[in-house]
Amino acid sequence: MKILIADDDPITRRLLESSLAQPGHEIITTHDGQQAWETLQRMGEPPPLLVLDWLMPGIDGLELCRRVRKTPELQLAYVILLTSRSHREDIVEGLEAGADDYVTKPFNPNELRARISVGSRMMKLQRTLADRVKELEGALQRVSQLQGARPTG
Amino acid sequence: MLDRDALWYRVGGDGALLADIIDLFLEEAPRLVAELRLALAQDDKPRALRCAHRLRGASGDLSALRVTALAAQLESLGRQGTWEQADAFCQALDTEIARIQPVLGALVRKKAA
């Protein structure tokens, strides 16, 4: 599963990369909100999981979250905000901007991995559901074609 | 001044990763204090605030408790627009970073040995 990381701190980036490096994960690292946004727009198949730092120069994590939710190809992505703030109002603001979850910095690697696996499970469920809907739509279409082809009278 | 247990936990006992983030910190921390001073001299408050914030984040990742506390205090004062003591904070940050440098260096050497 592809995971995009956006953080302007090289130490946090390094820790994120090593915490999330495991079989089945493909990590795409970006250095700030602008680079993350450009990368997301350029990618044919955007990553289903995003880990975004809240406070970054230029486009911050909140703004990135809002843009992601407004973009059809991205709006289903699972977004985790990294925040060094822990005030309740801030967390509410983050969730309202479209984040699915948040992790407080300095982050605990096990906690981050656990939250990533929640996100990953959600994304897999969502994909299974989408595939099932597509299957059903196909089946329905075949049924109506058959009905149309049935000789009348 | 350094929470070694928290730091080891954060790197999952990975000595190479520890060495990497210590190198990054020793490069990043003095640079951020220098940039902070420059921003203050140029009266660029948003940039000074960003530096204090970054320093807090970077030192937090290293569990460099005193540096984090100083950077957090400066960031919080800066958010309130109180910059009068900023020079003293920069000085204290320099001292604290210089003090923690050999401690972090020894951690890497101990692992390599």
Topology:
The complex is a heterodimer of chains A (153) and B (113).
Chain A: E1 2-6, H1 10-20, E2 26-30, H2 33-42, E3 49-53, H3 61-70, E4 78-83, H4 88-96, E5 101-104, H5 109-149
Parallel strand pairs in A: 1-2, 1-3, 3-4, 4-5
Helix pairs in contact in A: 1-5
Chain B: H1 4-10, H2 15-41, H3 45-61, H4 65-79, H5 86-112
CATH superfamily of chain A: Response regulator
Into which percent range does the helicity of residues of chain A fall? 40-55%
Low-confidence blocks of residues of chain B = none
Number of strands of chain A: 5
Q: Which CATH class of chain A applies here?
A: Alpha Beta
Span between termini of chain A: 54 Å
CATH topology of chain A: Rossmann fold
Strand content of chain A: 15-25%
For the sheet with most strands of chain B, the description reads:
none
- What string, H for helix and E for strand, traces the elements of chain B in order? HHHHH
Biggest interface between protein chains, with counts per chain? A-B, 16 and 21 residues
Overall pLDDT level of chain A: 92
Strand order of the largest sheet of chain A: 2-1-3-4-5
Please give the CATH class of chain B.
Mainly Alpha
- Supply the CATH architecture of chain B: Up-down Bundle
Q: How widely separated are the two ends of chain B?
A: 24 Å
Mean pLDDT of chain B comes to 93
Describe the global form of chain B: elongated
Instruction: Please identify the structural class of chain B as seen in this structure.
Output: mainly alpha
- CATH topology of chain B: the name is Four Helix Bundle (Hemerythrin (Met), subunit A)
